Structure formats: structure tokens, C-alpha cells
């Protein structure tokens, strides 16, 4: 786990900041009646693990399923009449597209959104349903952003950047105001980071009212542009960011949020893909919250180092727009990481009743067989041998060890 630890410098009320507390307060007034005040719920499981109260800020329950509509609405609402008439354009992996589409529709502005080829179908359909014209371009968010910039130059449409604009950051900062209204005693706020707009906005709001509250940003290890950027003192570009968390798969910090994050965010941590999968599974099972991997990143950080956060802790679930196919794959992987799935191979004497005897051992040990297949023609096997590959549902890592021991005690050679 990579970290940057250090105290913030300056104050978000000062003129050197591109976004001030006053900007965020003005955005909150503008968003009244437009965005929901999302709930802040206690997580008993995470509280027990962390040894301090943990609350979840449920932006996955926001309109469009993420926080993005906050910043998009503020940005578009502040456009001059002639800019609105020209329409807006955006690039997005999904959530920003929906936020821009809804905000533009509410304000009577035409919107065009560029999304990478292969973007999740539910996010494509949702952006269109909210009123945007959706165009697919390239394989990454950066490719889509290049196309959006070109479209803006050609047509005069205003580019609504997903994170690199003061109005967008001010809108996202209203999440921080709500956190302090709902949990004035908060000690730490943990928030996922891609380009940094949400973390920057929350930091401005929270530090402006409670400078003592720690702000911890979380990035996916395969797309962590902030640690090297902070070390270099300027935004650094990653060549090929890789993570299933498409909401924070950004190759370069935004210039505007970077200036804020570098001075106000106390620490940046990274989490692995396995940790993201386990966090998503926990949110679903324990908190009854459907979140996307990016939205689960603060929970992943809490699970990876539960005793290292000053409480009470608020973890921001930034979005819930997860592709069902990805959700299925992530849940299976998360269960495997948690020891809830066990795959093994067992050699048997190839005779009638041998498989039934093996299954009896597994049944007695409490395993649920999900899948089974036979191999009889492998040259490694003896003439009267067969190999059985089993996929089992278990009750956790201890149960996996018990199953392994039960099979060996019964005389079965076990291969993993």
C-alpha cells in the first residue's frame, strides 16, 4: 500500500485557492431542489473492524447513481446564455456522462457525450435516457476526452470536464458540506480519487469548516497517478492505467484539483484489485449497498488497514452504476479472495462408486459442490486413475483448510 503522509498547507478560504469555501456554499444553494441530500448510514461491521464508528456517505443513491450530477449542474448552470445555446460536450466512462445528460436536460441545454468503446451498456443506455447524444470513441477516457475537445472546437459547444474545472469541484464539494452537517464530529473522511475532483471539493468544504478533520484519498494501485505526481510536485501521466474501477481509472490528475489535493488532502493510499473486490462484496452483503468498484475504494482502504484511521470515519460511496456482468465477475472473485470458493483437483481410482464416496466426504464436511469435471486421458494418470476438478462453495478460509484436511484424512491426494 503506497501512501503520502503530510499535513495540509494553506486554507481553502485564501485567495490562492482555485476553489474556496464560499464557492462550495454557493454551489450548495444552487443545487437545492436539484440534488438529493444522500443518507449517511452507520456500518456496524466496518465500525467493529476499525475500532471506531464508521459511516457510509451514500452517493450511490444520488440522482443518476453518483455524485457527478452535482458538479455537472453547477458548471452548466453558470454558463452564459450564448454558451448554453451552443450546447455542451463531455467525455466520460459513464457516471459523468449521466450527470451531464441530466443536468443539461434540467437546464434545457443540448448535450453530447463521448464515451470509450466498450463502455458498459447500462451506462450508455442511461446517458441516452437522460437526454444526451452518445458517441463512442477510442479505448480509454483520454481518447474520449480528446474527441470531446475536438468536437468543442468544431462546434463551439462548451466542454464540461469531469474534474478539471473550479465549478465542477465546487459542486462536488457539497458532499463535504453534507458530511459535516450529518456527522459534525467526523475525524476522517475517506474518498476515492481518479482525476481528483471529488476529493478536492470535499477537502475545500471540510477543511474550510473543520481544519482538524483528516482527508484520505484512495486510488486503485494500477491507476494511481497521484502518488508520483505529489512526489514530483506536478501532475504526472501514467502510460496505461489498469483497474476494474473505471470511475477512478484516470491516467493524469487534473491541474485544478491537483493544486488543492497537494495542499489539503492529508494522505493518499492505494488499494489492490483483490481489496476492491472484497470491499464491493462487503458493501453488498453487510451494508446492502450496490456500489461500483470505484465507489467501494474507501471501504477497501478501511479493510486493508482498519486500525489506522482516526474516528469517527466517513467513507464516501461515490457511485453505484456497476455493469451487471462486471458485478457478477467481481463478486465471484471477491468470494474467492475471502475463501468462500475453493477449487481443487483430486485423483481417484476409476471405478464405480468412487465419485460418490468422494462427494460423501465433502458433504460430511459441509461443502457445497458448484461444479465438477472429470479427466481420464491425461498421460500423467495411471491406467485405472481419474482426476476430478471440483469448485466448492465454502464458509471461509478456515473451512477451506478443514475440507483439505478431511480429504487428505480420507486418503485422497489433493492438488490445488
Explain the overall architecture.
The structure is a single chain. This protein has 416 residues and is an alpha/beta fold. It folds into three domains: 3-65 and 165-336, Rossmann fold (3-Layer(aba) Sandwich); 68-159, 3-Layer(aba) Sandwich (Rossmann fold), CATH 3.40.50; 339-415, 2-Layer Sandwich (Alpha-Beta Plaits). It is 44% helix and 18% strand. The protein is built from 16 helices and 15 strands. It has helices at 21-31, 44-50, 68-77, 81-86, 95-107, 121-129, 141-155, 166-182, 197-209, 226-232, 255-264, 273-285, 293-304, 324-337, 354-364, 397-409, and strands spanning 3-5, 40-42, 54-58, 88-91, 111-115, 133-136, 158-159, 188-192, 214-220, 267-271, 313-317, 341-349, 368-375, 385-393, 414-415. The strands form three sheets. A seven-stranded mixed β-sheet has the order 1-10-9-8-11-3-2, sandwiched between helices. A four-stranded parallel β-sheet has the order 6-5-4-7, with helices on both faces. Helix 5 (95-107) links the parallel strand 4 (88-91) and strand 5 (111-115). It is elongated. It starts with a strand and ends with a strand.
Amino acid at each position: 500500500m503506497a501512501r503520502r503522509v503530510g499535513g495540509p498547507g494553506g486554507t481553502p478560504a485564501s485567495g490562492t485557492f482555485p476553489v474556496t469555501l464560499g464557492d462550495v456554499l454557493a454551489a450548495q444553494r444552487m443545487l437545492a431542489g436539484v440534488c438529493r441530500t444522500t443518507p449517511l448510514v452507520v456500518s456496524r461491521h466496518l465500525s467493529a473492524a476499525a475500532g471506531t464508528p464508521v459511516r457510509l456517505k451514500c452517493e450511490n443513491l444520488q440522482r443518476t447513481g453518483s455524485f457527478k450530477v452535482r458538479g455537472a449542474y453547477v458548471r452548466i448552470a453558470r454558463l452564459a446564455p450564448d454558451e448554453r445555446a451552443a450546447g455542451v460536450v463531455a467525455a466520460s466512462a459513464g457516471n459523468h456522462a449521466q450527470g451531464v445528460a441530466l443536468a443539461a436536460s434540467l437546464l434545457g441545454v443540448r448535450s453530447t457525450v463521448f464515451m470509450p468503446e466498450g463502455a458498459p451498456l447500462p451506462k450508455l443506455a442511461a446517458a441516452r435516457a437522460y437526454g444526451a447524444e452518445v458517441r463512442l470513441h477510442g479505448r480509454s477516457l483520454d481518447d474520449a476526452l480528446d474527441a470531446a475537445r475536438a468536437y468543442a472546437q468544431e462546434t463551439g459547444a462548451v466542454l464540461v470536464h469531469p474534474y478539471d474545472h473550479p465549478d465542477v469541484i465546487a459542486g462536488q464539494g457539497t458532499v463535504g458540506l453534507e458530511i459535516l452537517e450529518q456527522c459534525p464530529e467526523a475525524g476522517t473522511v475517506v474518498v476515492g480519487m481518479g482525476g481528483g475532483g471529488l476529493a478536492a471539493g470535499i477537502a475545500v468544504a471540510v477543511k474550510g469548516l473543520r481544519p482538524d478533520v483528516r482527508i484520505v484519498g484512495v486510488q486503485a494501485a494500477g491507476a494511481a497517478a497521484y502518488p508520483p505526481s505529489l512526489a514530483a510536485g506536478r501532475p504526472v501521466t501514467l502510460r496505461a492505467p489498469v483497474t476494474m474501477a473505471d470511475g477512478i481509472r484516470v491516467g493524469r490528475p487534473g491541474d485544478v484539483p491537483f493544486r488543492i489535493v497537494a495542499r489539503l488532502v492529508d494522505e493518499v493510499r492505494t488499494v489492490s484489485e483483490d481489496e476492491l473486490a472484497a470491499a464491493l462484496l462487503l458493501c453488498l452483503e453487510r451494508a446492502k449497498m450496490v456500489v461500483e468498484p470505484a465507489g467501494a475504494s474507501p471501504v477497501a482502504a478501511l479493510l486493508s488497514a482498519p486500525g489506522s484511521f482516526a474516528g469517527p470515519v466517513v467513507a464516501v460511496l461515490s457511485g453505484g452504476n456497476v455493469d451487471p456482468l462486471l458485478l457478477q465477475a467481481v463478486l465471484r472473485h471477491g468470494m474467492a479472495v475471502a475463501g468462500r470458493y475453493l477449487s481443487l483437483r483430486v485423483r481417484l481410482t476409476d471405478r464405480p462408486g468412487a465419485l460418490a464416496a468422494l462427494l460423501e466426504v465433502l458433504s460430511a464436511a459441509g461443502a457445497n459442490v458448484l461444479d465438477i469435471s472429470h479427466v481420464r486421458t491425461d498421460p500423467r494418470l495411471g491406467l485405472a486413475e481419474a482426476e476430478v476438478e471440483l469448485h466448492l462453495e465454502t464458509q471461509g478460509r478456515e473451512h477451506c483448510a478443514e475440507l483439505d484436511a478431511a480429504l487428505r484424512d480420507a486418503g485422497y491426494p489433493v492438488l490445488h
